[in-house]
Amino acid sequence: MRHYLTLSMAWVALAVSALAVSALAAAAPADAPTRHTEVSIDGDSFLINGRLTYEGVTWSPEGEDTEYRIEGLLMNARLVQGIFDDLNPETVHRWRYPDTGQWDPERNTQDFIDAMSSWYEHGLRCFVINLQGGSPEGYSREQPWHNSALRADGSLREDFMNRLERILDRADQLGMVPMLGIYYFGQDGRLEDEAAVIRGVENAVNWVLDKGYRNVLIEINNECNVRYDHAILQPPRVHELIELAQGITRNGRRLYVGTSYGGGTVPRENVVKVSDFILLHGNGVRDPQRMEQMIHAVRTMDVYRGQPIVNNEDDQPWRVAAQGFGHSGNNFVICVKNYASWGYFDFRLNDELGDFNQGFQTVPSNWQISSDRKRAFFDLVAEITSSPGTPRLDLDVPDSGVIRAGDGIELQVQVENLREETPIERVELLVNNAVVAEAKQAPYTFRLKGLPVGEPMVRARATYQRQGREVIVESPYRTLRVLDEPERVFVPDQPRLIALRAADYYSMTEGTRHTWVKTEHVEASGPVMQAQPVLQQILGPDRASPRMDYHVQFDETGTYYVWVRGLADSGDEDSVHVGLNGVSPPSAQHVHPFEPFKQWVWTNTNRHGARVVLEVDRPGVHTVNVWMREDGFLLDRLLLARDPAYKPDGEGPELCHLID
What we know:
It is a single chain. By secondary structure, the protein is of the alpha+beta class. It folds into 3 domains: 16-388, Alpha-Beta Barrel (TIM Barrel); 393-482, Sandwich (Immunoglobulin-like), CATH 2.60.40.10; 486-659, Jelly Rolls (Sandwich). The chain has 9 helices and 36 strands. The chain has an 8-stranded parallel β-sheet with strand order 10-9-8-7-6-13-12-11. Strands 25, 27, 28, 30, 32, 33 and 35 form a 7-stranded antiparallel β-sheet that branches. Strands 24, 26, 29, 31, 34 and 36 form a 6-stranded mixed β-sheet that branches. The chain is globular and about 85 Å long. The termini are far apart.
């Protein structure tokens, strides 16, 4: 009886709140903009402007005769960081763009808007965007950053909502259906109490209705069964907020509302009973048959009313990675076969943290179709939905992009799979996010000189029109390496043998979270370098990893055998990357092992057991590089030998002398 009374009081509070909201309906702005896109639901199907999505489309996977119905589905992707910002000054530096060195929330939103037309051309009709985003690291144990469009009292932040309005306006123009998430675990705790949570839902839904949007779906919170602070956002009570949002109307019109659970979880009956659409997550579901079982479990519930089923988050949707986005063996295809929509959650993996082309959720985000994984997803969406897709842009950079300051470089833009009826209007070349050149007809060749010393990032952008829509397509970012005139050059005193002390680096570039720190250690030859802080993180030889540089005089061309003297306390910190002129070839990546542990040892092998080598193609000054792979690793010396039979011992040979 006591439980019944408590529940009744909650419903009374919500009923009073709903009455207050209803009274606001008459105050809706009379000058709301005219909108172009309206979403509706008919049974288990979605409609846009009164017509089934992908009208008349069916799809038959390779090797099957069955034609699976596609019309009425809502292909989507988790693109939640479109309005991201970090209000915590202690963590905002983590999200700096690699080309400008600064975080810019307005750029993030504009890049998102620029990419939306290319998603649409591939058949994507829905994307998830959140008022509290998602983890900007993909997955996180802690969330010290402050990314919330909601203040502690549940009111809305104007700057966040202005960015959201720009995105929703573009979606309305294109004919897309945004799914607006309100709360995210780890950020919901920033609201002061349950009353603020309720106000947040009211304010968000009222804002959407006041703006006149008819194409927006509402997801109350992402994964309601995962670490929420407020009881009303947790599974037993989250249906109260769904019904609250459904009760807010304008001229008899309301929004469609649902919520989601964590990967592999079938929603509870209280959510299925009231939701307008049923959300599933496939994270961690490695067997597609489990995905099929989840869909079937929803459809056989007594409270299921035939609503659409949408998988709106799935991070690695295949049983075996090699299968990828093929016609079988992944959750995407199994959802389609069972008439459920599907959405991709893409983020940078640990060994991709310095590759800006990877991932959608990791901040800063590259919103273009800029990686093989993104393209595989979008190509399959285009195939399944009978959509045209977009041309592919690639930027050819000769000789690995390494040049000396003052030299020139020629860049060629390749445009593939271009539809004849959609001619390119212009191709622009951008360096560090600034347009530096433009071409309006092929061949798209750009010659650059006077590039800044360092690692400027370049990309190409093509613009064309299709059926009245401006479409923007970009190439993946490429990094050039512009070397300054050499100073502090190491010159070998022994023929065919180059020995360097790690602590004598010419320059050091910090990584995203790590740096090389000079320290002392017994039995070392002097000061040594350690990758800190020790977080047990693994990085590739890229911008996420701290790098040390050494200018070295090479008198001979050819193969140099690389030896590294280092110390590791365990197998969690026993590797490093080496390279030349800013490039780490596969042969010089993942140098290890450094065993026995807790001793200084020389190593000349990589993870494949092959010898570590660098190829020098011309005599003169080159830059030797060292990147962190595992933090905690201690580095003492580097040795490059022409003789394959040479093997150092102790501290190694005499060091090169330094010419300033």
